[in-house]
Structures are given as structure tokens and as C-alpha cells.
Write a structure and sequence with these properties.
Elements: E1 6-9, E2 12-15, E3 19-22, H1 23-26, E4 27-30, E5 49-52, E6 57-58, E7 61-62, E8 68-70, H2 72-76, E9 88-91, E10 99-101, E11 108-110, E12 114-119, H3 126-133, H4 136-146, H5 156-159, E13 163-166, H6 170-208, E14 216-219, H7 220-223, E15 224-228, E16 243-246, E17 254-256, E18 265-269, E19 278-281, E20 286-287, E21 291-296, H8 300-309, H9 311-315, H10 328-332, E22 335-338, H11 342-380
Parallel strand pairs: 5-11, 16-20
Antiparallel strand pairs: 1-2, 3-13, 4-12, 5-8, 6-7, 9-10, 9-12, 14-22, 15-21, 16-17, 18-19, 18-21
Length: about 400
């Protein structure tokens, strides 16, 4: 049953006073026509006038530091694609449907793979449309376009048919946009804090794990027994089971109802594109056939932090080009430097593990706020919750 004050439309249930609009109804859509003869040879590494391409989109913004430049003649060639505050940019080639919102004045133009969408007059608040393009309304639209097609391109004739809900007043559109923008700002601040903490941890690792006087040189096989796991038939895995199956990837390859390796174990990926990846599994798990476990004779947390700091060198042990792998004997002979005293190993491990715990806490907080924002979009962009 549809609740009072709402109505059923072709895009779902929305408030009675909201309308269903299409890009054709109330937007102008511009792009570099036929690339206007612009070639990659004209892309500059330095200059005054940015050139936005599909590879410069990043989480709703343009990464200006990755953009190329063009000369002034190319910039002034077409005023329709000179970027302005309030523009919504969207990719139409390659990975289609990536979106960015321009909130600062900047001298920039577009290459042929990007649309700029603008309202006709004051038909809507541009940032509101930006959030619509990030919603399930637009994702579902793109999925329907892609169904049965091998062409990865967003054509203007298709794009203009996209239909979405629009609140009746600019004030309500602005209120929705502001609420979602505030959520984005909070998420961005946590992301920046995580980056800062990771950089601090990286510096601490370099300082604390750098070999010092009195440290001893060992082969990894001297301080740990390195064992391979046992492969499970994929058909026996069940997402509802509780024990992760750890194989050659960074993430579990599935879940099972049994385990063959206890919690608090260091593992190294044996095969695949991620071979050499070092991890510390804190729960009981099933160790697969493409995974090494380390039964350590020194402080476990210290060895994990040391190997994590040397991960790029561990990955350098891989052999093979098609499906690379790391042979056990190469891990056994891998050279490490360690402090001889358990006390020093423990001191270093505690400092770095505490940093990891802080970062993990921030990552949980980040995931929580991302989920909250997704819920806000579902509520606000459908009119289920109204701010005005």
C-alpha cells in the first residue's frame, strides 16, 4: 500500500509534489564534438589550461594533479565545454558513468570522453543531480543500457532519456544536497586522517625495523617453519559458514565449516597476482593450497611487522609470468635482520600493532559513515525522508 502523500511512478514511489524529469526536459548536454581534432600529441605536462579526461575522475571529484594541459587556443575553441562552478561531469567512454562535481573556479576544458551536464535556467540545483547520478536510479539505468551490449559507450541519445525524481523547490534540492555534501566532507576527513596515520606508521616502520648494531642476520627458515595448506573443493564452500578460506588472494576465497589453522597466524600468499602478500589472520581459518603459514620461533607480532615492511621484497621472489608463484625454498632462504632479545622484539611489535589498531578503528568508522551515507541517499533521494 502506498502511504498518504506519495505516488507510484515508473521509477518508483515518490512524494505527490515531486516530479519525474528526464535529462532532455531540463538539462543541456555538451561534449567535445568529434574530439575537434584534438590528439594525444597535444596533451601538455605543464600549462595554464587543464584538460579533463575520464582517467582524472576520483570519488566524485577531479584529480587536478593528474590532469594534462592544453594550449590556450584549444581552451577557447569551445566555450560550451569550458568547465564552470556547478558543472556535473560524467564519463561516456571506457568506464562509463563516473561522475564529478565542480565546486571551485578553474580554467579547464574536456576531452572527447566526457559530458558536461548543466541545468536549463534554474530548473534544478546542479549538486542535486550529481547525487542522483551517484544513486541507484542512475546505476540501474546504466545496467539496463549495458545489458546485451558489447559497446562500452554512453550515447547522448540514450543519456537524455534518463529519468529521475525532482523535488518541487530549489530549497529542498539544496537541503538534500547539503546534507549529503556534509556526509561526504565527514567521510573525506576520515579518509585523510587514515592516510596521515598510514604515513606515520610507514615512517615508524622504517625507523624501528631498520637493522641496528647488535641485530642478527637470519634466514626466514631459521626463525619460522613454513608450511603450505590444503586445497578445498570450491563446491564445498558456503558464504554462511564462519571460517574464512585463505588462498592466494588478499581476501578470503570463500567460507567453510571447518578449520585447519589456528588464529594468530602469519600467512604469505603463494600464487596468483597477489603472491607475496603478507597477512596476519586473527581467527581460526582454513589454509588453502596457495597459502604459506609461518610457525614462528620469535615474537610473532614482530615478525609480521618486519615481513610487512619487506613485502615488496617478498613479492620480488615470485617466478613465472602467466600465473606467478613463490617457491617455498626461496622463502626459506629469505634474509631478515632481527633484534636478538625478545624484549626489543616485543617493544617494537607493541608500538606498530597499536598503530595498526588505531588505523583499523578509523577504517571501521569510515565504513560505518559510508553505510550511513548510502542510507541517507536512499531516504533523501526517494523522498522517504524530507528535510523541508
Amino acid at each position: 500500500m502506498i502511504r498518504k502523500g506519495y505516488k507510484q511512478t515508473e521509477i518508483g514511489i515518490i512524494p505527490q509534489d515531486w516530479e519525474v524529469k528526464s535529462i532532455l526536459n531540463n538539462s543541456t548536454l555538451k561534449a567535445r564534438i568529434g574530439w575537434q581534432g584534438l590528439t594525444v600529441a597535444e596533451y601538455l605536462d605543464n600549462g595554464e589550461f587543464y584538460l579533463v579526461t575520464g582517467t582524472d575522475f576520483d570519488n566524485g571529484k577531479i584529480k587536478w594533479e593528474t590532469c594534462h594541459y592544453v594550449n590556450k587556443d584549444r581552451y577557447i575553441q569551445d566555450k560550451n565545454i569550458q568547465v564552470k562552478v556547478g558543472d556535473v561531469l560524467i564519463t561516456k567512454d571506457g568506464t562509463i558513468g563516473k561522475v564529478a562535481y565542480i565546486n571551485l573556479p578553474i580554467d579547464a576544458t574536456l576531452n572527447g570522453g566526457v559530458f558536461v551536464v548543466r541545468p536549463k535556467g534554474n530548473e534544478y540545483y546542479p549538486q542535486y543531480l550529481f547525487y542522483i547520478f551517484n544513486s541507484t536510479y542512475f546505476k540501474d539505468f546504466l545496467n539496463k543500457l549495458a545489458a546485451g551490449s558489447t559497446i562500452n559507450h554512453l550515447y547522448q541519445k540514450d543519456f537524455i532519456s534518463f529519468r529521475y525524481p525532482l523535488p518541487p523547490t530549489l530549497a529542498e534540492q539544496i537541503a538534500i544536497s547539503t546534507a549529503l555534501s556534509d556526509a561526504d566532507d565527514l567521510i573525506s576527513s576520515i579518509e585523510k586522517l587514515i592516510d596521515k596515520k598510514r604515513n606515520i606508521k610507514q615512517g615508524a616502520m622504517q625507523q624501528l625495523l631498520k637493522p641496528k648494531d647488535g641485530w642478527v642476520v637470519k634466514k626466514l627458515g631459521e626463525v619460522a617453519e613454513i608450511k603450505k595448506g590444503e586445497q578445498l573443493n570450491r563446491s564445498t564452500l558456503n558464504e554462511n559458514d564462519i571460517y574464512p578460506v585463505i588462498n592466494g588472494g588478499i581476501l578470503p576465497s570463500g567460507y567453510t565449516d571447518k578449520w585447519n589453522q589456528k588464529a594468530e597466524t602469519i600467512i604469505i600468499s603463494e600464487g596468483g597476482n597477489s603472491c607475496g602478500y603478507v597477512n596476519f589472520i586473527r581467527t581460526n581459518f582454513w589454509q588453502g593450497g596457495h597459502c604459506y603459514s609461518l610457525d614462528t620461533k620469535i615474537k610473532k607480532d614482530f615478525l609480521f611487522q618486519l615481513l610487512k615492511s619487506l613485502e615488496s621484497f617478498v613479492m620480488g621472489l615470485r617466478v613465472g609470468s602467466g600465473l606467478p608463484n613463490i617457491q617455498r625454498n626461496r622463502l626459506i632462504d629469505f634474509i631478515i635482520n632481527i633484534p636478538p632479545s625478545l624484549e626489543e622484539q616485543t617493544r617494537i611489535a607493541i608500538i606498530l600493532s597499536d598503530m595498526d589498531a588505531e588505523i583499523e578503528g578509523l577504517e571501521r568508522k569510515l565504513n560505518k559513515y559510508r553505510m550511513i551515507k548510502q542510507g541517507m541517499m536512499q531516504e533523501l533521494l526517494t523522498g522517504k525522508t524530507r528535510l523541508i
